[in-house]
Amino acid sequence: MCGIAGFVSSQHIGYERGLVCGTMLEALRHRGPDDGDVWCDPSGRATLGHRRLSILELSAAGHQPMVSRCGRLVLVFNGEIYNHLDMRRELADEDEGPSGGWRGHSDTETLLAAFVAWGVEATLQRAVGMFALALWDKENAELVLARDRMGEKPLYYGWQGSDFLFASELKAVRAHPQFEGELDWTAAAGFLRCNYIQAPATMYRKILKLMPGTCVRLRLREAHVPDLPPPVSYWSLDTALTRGLEQPFEGSLEDAVDRFEELLQQAVQLQSVADVKVGAFLSGGIDSSAVVAMMRAATTSEVMTFSIRMPDPRFDESAHAAAVARHLGTEHVEYRVTAEDVLGLVGQLSEIWDEPLGDSSQIPTFFVSRLASTHVKVALSGDGGDELFLGYPKYALYRRFWQWRALRCLPLGSAPQLLSTLRGSSPPLSLLRRGGRFLSACRQPDVQALDRYWSDPYRGAKVPLAEQREPALQPPPVAPGIATSAGIWDAGAYLPDDVLVKVDRGAMANGLETRAPFLDHRIVEFALSLPEAYKLDGGVAKRVVRDMLYRKVPRVLVDRPKMGFSIPLDRWLKNELRPWCEALIARADRGSGGFDRVMVRKLWSDYLAGVCRDTEQVWGILTLIAHYEKS
What we know:
By secondary structure, this protein is an alpha+beta fold. Helices cover 43% and strands 14% of the residues. It has 27 helices and 17 strands. The chain is globular, with a radius of gyration of 24 Å.
């Protein structure tokens, strides 16, 4: 796990390239505290930089930027290629390995040799891993950017002045002298609708996120500033879904459980390989418990697991995590998060997460990452299980809405929307409000509209911005089954743009690498080939994962209501964090004209009075103000 940054110059520049790239890298030091370096093309066209967190090949043989043996290609790489030793053997069988042998055992060196032998797309299709990379071809004056299939590792890019920039985080982009910083208020409106910024947009108009499973090629001789080369897909959820529908899994449920266990065991074994100590996050939920169970089965060595305790028992899963840890025999470590901890963190959120993220579970993610980083350098997680195997409660709820879609035909006019917007905390008003939302949900024309409506804290009403703008969202693949369609929508947007951003920034701020076995693309493809009933069976979520875990952990430790990685945010906002909140609200009054100051003030006062009880709305606008104030 590392950080990369650099730029390609379309014309002569009047600054020292190495110093500029060094400044960009300094903004990424937390991602790679162990080493760092810059490579400058003698022609003056390309500058590549790398910060290293040493996980594989701890010696200088893993140093980056790395130049290929032939001298033509230069690579900076963030991530891990779990099957790189298999790729080395394949190169050897084809007599395509580097002449003179390998310098070390880093996956970076393997990638470079594979790029020389097979080309970029063929190499990426063979690779099993998570990554963001930049490859400079000196002979063709071409830069290639690529990102892993599911979007575990981040990569930003775009023209700023005469330079084409790329970096692992926006803070490195902002460090470049040509950075313009033009804010994108359409992206801000989209953020308030779902509490994350959906790719390819960012908070800046001319900077994009590279989409998962894609490459961008910039051939400098053909580049026209400020035109961006189009991303080209080498893997996508859409094509994986199509393949799954054409070649569905045809075995029994028990066969599916056997196959899932085999795939997860293989993924965990691959992802447990490192030259440093590896542990795991353990919430006590199904997905993290399944990963830890596979770790214990794969090794006789001690496995360390990490969880956090919350002061409010309604949000505390630590007892469940401890019970699973005792059963599996791990060395389990806990940390108790306090309101004082959170108060010390909130002022840093906009710096750590780099762009608006309204997912308050970023706070416990940071603390469990900080805890793990004091013991290990790598932690496995259960991320991806809910989206791929339909674990979120909303999927069963969507089925219910769809069954009642005949309510769309009732002559109710705008009554559902009016009921949904009722304000007040009395039981009758609360009941009417829920009824209005239910009726509105039932009247949505398709699953994408239903998911947009249900995930929108404002339920289609105005957001507190001066201009009401609607972002252009990426159309998701559509699958048979309302729940599966919603899960694929989440896997393509919510997972990479919220969940994985949350984990990447929270972990990297603490110098910790995280790995997600559920996101091995072979598990993803397997999940997309399953009948919906093998994932969501009546009211039983994640049926295949759950049945596999029954083989490892007693049912009493598995069958409990889903809690989620939550915090007592409502209580903290109104008490311990209230001074921080009110300082942000005041700064919105004095700050950018992009906010509707009257709406912001009313939202906050209604929240304090109990008229508005939507903590998501409040946390989202506070997060947005904090980021746009610093931009």
